[in-house]
């Protein structure tokens, strides 16, 4: 075609390049729904009963697994480690909770899927699009379709499935209720008590030897732990996080708080090393002012005045440990800390 050809003659011919040439079929035409084929459960009531029992069995297994979840939470200690092939060494509590909760949720899902695939109606019904605001007759049709779906599902007629489903769905939420226990401290003394007790000797963290009064010089800072606690212990980190102690010797006439003086020995005072803000270990001591500083957020405590907070975000003083000297001349605790160690919590008195 030459360049002088008029533009209208360059357009494609309707007869040869239209949407469909004469005699051709539309490749995008709606093929319609395939013919409906009944399932074995639709024509054989015995097969339907077998499917019903299968679904009910899955729901019952879910119920038992939920009960096992709760029993595992109560029975297994959190620090019990066992070897399970092929997972290796795992916490028996975490393993039991994961397995039982997984089985409970899986069986509910599997039961619902099997119920839908074998017993509920599988007939496909096309429905044309309609306006967003449905007219009353459409809303009435939806409610009618819903009622028919409920009737076809056999929810009202198949009581065994219905009752076991209710049982499984009622028990599964108890798994979450049990886990709520971990959102806060249990009603025990885990946050209030440490390893310190009357007669526990103060062990130097560096030398691992019992501390004697003459070992603590005026102006020095010494860290101690309870006698009987070893770094090789499985729970060492957990225990030292609560029982870590700092020892400072102050001239008795410079101690302002009377109770602090009564709880000391010849000016040797013992306080928790754990900051009462977020639990950082305190390690900075100013000899002239008797102030200790937390390196995390600069909370400052006055060890000559009951370890009161004089600066920073900490909410309350450091807990003090009452100390004395035993028959061997070693420093010993005369009880536990006077207050729970570390950051404040809502149950704190």
UniProtKB/TrEMBL annotation:
<comment type="subunit">
    <text>The cytochrome bc1 complex is composed of a cytochrome b (QcrB), the Rieske iron-sulfur protein (QcrA) and a diheme cytochrome c (QcrC) subunit.</text>
</comment>
<feature type="domain" description="Rieske">
    <location>
        <begin position="261"/>
        <end position="332"/>
    </location>
</feature>
<protein>
    <recommendedName>
        <fullName>Cytochrome bc1 complex Rieske iron-sulfur subunit</fullName>
    </recommendedName>
</protein>
<feature type="region of interest" description="Disordered">
    <location>
        <begin position="1"/>
        <end position="35"/>
    </location>
</feature>
<keyword id="KW-0679">Respiratory chain</keyword>
<dbReference type="InterPro" id="IPR017941">
    <property type="entry name" value="Rieske_2Fe-2S"/>
</dbReference>
<dbReference type="GO" id="GO:0051537">
    <property type="term" value="F:2 iron, 2 sulfur cluster binding"/>
</dbReference>
<dbReference type="InterPro" id="IPR045603">
    <property type="entry name" value="QcrA_N"/>
</dbReference>
<feature type="transmembrane region" description="Helical">
    <location>
        <begin position="95"/>
        <end position="116"/>
    </location>
</feature>
<keyword id="KW-1133">Transmembrane helix</keyword>
<keyword id="KW-0249">Electron transport</keyword>
<comment type="function">
    <text>Iron-sulfur subunit of the cytochrome bc1 complex, an essential component of the respiratory electron transport chain required for ATP synthesis. The bc1 complex catalyzes the oxidation of menaquinol and the reduction of cytochrome c in the respiratory chain. The bc1 complex operates through a Q-cycle mechanism that couples electron transfer to generation of the proton gradient that drives ATP synthesis.</text>
</comment>
<dbReference type="GO" id="GO:0016705">
    <property type="term" value="F:oxidoreductase activity, acting on paired donors, with incorporation or reduction of molecular oxygen"/>
</dbReference>
<dbReference type="Pfam" id="PF00355">
    <property type="entry name" value="Rieske"/>
</dbReference>
<dbReference type="InterPro" id="IPR036922">
    <property type="entry name" value="Rieske_2Fe-2S_sf"/>
</dbReference>
<keyword id="KW-0813">Transport</keyword>
<keyword id="KW-0812">Transmembrane</keyword>
<dbReference type="GO" id="GO:0046872">
    <property type="term" value="F:metal ion binding"/>
</dbReference>
<dbReference type="InterPro" id="IPR014349">
    <property type="entry name" value="Rieske_Fe-S_prot"/>
</dbReference>
<dbReference type="Pfam" id="PF19297">
    <property type="entry name" value="QcrA_N"/>
</dbReference>
<feature type="transmembrane region" description="Helical">
    <location>
        <begin position="55"/>
        <end position="75"/>
    </location>
</feature>
<dbReference type="GO" id="GO:0005886">
    <property type="term" value="C:plasma membrane"/>
</dbReference>
<keyword id="KW-0408">Iron</keyword>
<keyword id="KW-0411">Iron-sulfur</keyword>
<keyword id="KW-0479">Metal-binding</keyword>
<keyword id="KW-0472">Membrane</keyword>
<keyword id="KW-1015">Disulfide bond</keyword>
<feature type="transmembrane region" description="Helical">
    <location>
        <begin position="160"/>
        <end position="180"/>
    </location>
</feature>
<keyword id="KW-0001">2Fe-2S</keyword>
<keyword id="KW-0560">Oxidoreductase</keyword>
<keyword id="KW-1003">Cell membrane</keyword>
<comment type="similarity">
    <text>Belongs to the Rieske iron-sulfur protein family.</text>
</comment>
<dbReference type="GO" id="GO:0004497">
    <property type="term" value="F:monooxygenase activity"/>
</dbReference>
């Amino acid at each position: 075609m030459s360049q002088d050809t008029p533009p209208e003659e360059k357009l494609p011919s309707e007869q040869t390049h239209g949407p469909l040439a004469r005699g051709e079929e539309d490749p995008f035409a709606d093929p319609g729904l395939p013919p409906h084929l009944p399932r074995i459960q639709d024509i054989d009531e015995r097969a339907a009963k077998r499917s019903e029992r299968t679904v009910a069995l899955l729901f019952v297994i879910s119920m038992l697994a939920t009960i096992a979840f709760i029993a595992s939470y109560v029975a297994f200690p959190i620090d019990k480690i066992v070897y399970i092939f092929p997972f290796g060494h795992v916490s028996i509590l975490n393993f039991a909770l994961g397995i039982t909760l997984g089985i409970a949720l899986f069986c509910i899902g599997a039961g619902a899927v099997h119920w839908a695939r074998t017993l509920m109606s599988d007939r496909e019904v096309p429905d044309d699009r309609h306006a967003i605001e449905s007219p009353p007759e459409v809303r009435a049709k939806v409610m009618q379709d819903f009622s028919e779906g409920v009737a076809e599902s056999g929810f009202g007629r198949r009581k065994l499935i219905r009752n076991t489903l209710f049982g499984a769905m009622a028990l599964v939420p108890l798994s979450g209720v049990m886990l709520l226990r971990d959102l806060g401290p249990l009603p025990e003394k885990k946050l209030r008590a440490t390893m310190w007790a009357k007669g526990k000797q103060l062990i130097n963290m560096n030398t691992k030897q019992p501390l004697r009064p003459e070992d603590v010089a005026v102006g020095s800072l010494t860290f101690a732990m309870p006698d009987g606690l070893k770094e090789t212990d499985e729970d060492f980190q957990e225990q030292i996080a609560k029982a870590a102690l700092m020892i400072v010797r102050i001239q008795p006439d410079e101690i302002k708080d009377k109770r602090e003086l009564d709880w000391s020995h010849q000016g040797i005072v013992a306080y928790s090393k754990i900051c009462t803000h977020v639990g950082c270990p305190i390690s900075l001591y100013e000899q002239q002012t008797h102030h200790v500083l937390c390196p995390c957020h600069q909370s400052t405590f006055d060890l000559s005045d009951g370890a009161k907070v004089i600066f920073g975000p900490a909410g309350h003083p450091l807990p003090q440990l009452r100390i004395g000297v035993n028959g061997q001349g070693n420093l010993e605790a005369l009880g536990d800390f006077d207050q729970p160690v570390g950051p404040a919590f809502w149950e704190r008195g």
